Amino acid sequence: MHERSVPKELLTMVAQYLSMTAYTATVTVRLKHGVLDPEAETTKRSLERLGFELSALRSADKFEIDLDADDASAAEAEATEMTERLLANPTIHDYEISVAETEA
Amino acid sequence: MTVAVVQFGGSNCDRDAVRALTYLGVDAERVWHEDGLPEETTGIMLPGGFSYGDYLRAGAMAAQSPIMDEVRSKAENGTPVLGVCNGAQIGCESKLTDGAFTTNKSARFQCEHVYLRVERADTPWTNAYDVGDVIEIPIAHGEGRFEITEKRYDQLEANNQVLFRYCDKDGNSTDDANPNGSTGNVAGILGTSETVAVLMPHPERATLPDIGGTDGEGILHGFAE
Predict the structure, then answer these.
(1) Could you tell me the CA-to-CA distances from B46 to A34, B77, B83 in Å, in that order?
(2) One MF term in GO for this entry (chain B) (predicted)?
(3) Which of 30-89 (A) contact B at CB < 8 A?
């Protein structure tokens, strides 16, 4: 019987994975202040038609991303890159990101 | 000149584009985005439609397709690139041009004829016209409102990158003639080079004489040179 050797790279990967924590990054993307939001305006008018009184309504998209990372700041950095590259269009959007350990 | 009309899942103006270009004597073929650009590509058109169902934002998903890296590098090397409607949204999302096209001021999908004033006549897309010419071309979009930060809008103006503005029949860029609330009545802009342009109106729908006006054919002539 001969010994089976596990490739070192694989061991490193497993060790890295085991030391990672599961995080949920919550990304909120909204139009920049001053950018017209016709859908929110229409929604506001509909609420008024239902008899509600409100002075303003803003809408936003919320994304919850589950990911594994070494620590919270690494998770936030990863989520920030995702947001900059796809989830938000920096020309018209602002965004906020909060990161928390994923609840089991 | 072989124009690659790039087809994404949900593109729907690709056949119209090929037909209009063929009518003008320009060799054009549809290219599925996953197949990449053919070697003989000497022009690229990003056609209209609803790629990826406009998920997230119109054009956002198609802009991530690997073919767009090829399109950007071809564009940098001087290959003419024209984005129309959804293709214009993809162009902005993939940074071929500045700005963004977002929800119409009316919050509605609008399908109508509009007038455009030609702002530049020294580009491949417009040298069939004179500056100030008014052309009539259809729009068909829900997300066509041109948005850009004030500072970058000033830069666009300073660099003379506005190609078309919505206007009335007499060429006045009024609020009434602005169908979607676009900043500065902008309907189409140039990228950093004059060979790259995006516009929301559909020139391929105003090229074949059998289906109405032909005011748009001058724009597609940009590929004929």
Answers:
(1) 30, 17, 5
(2) glutaminase activity
(3) 35-39, 41-42, 86-87, 89
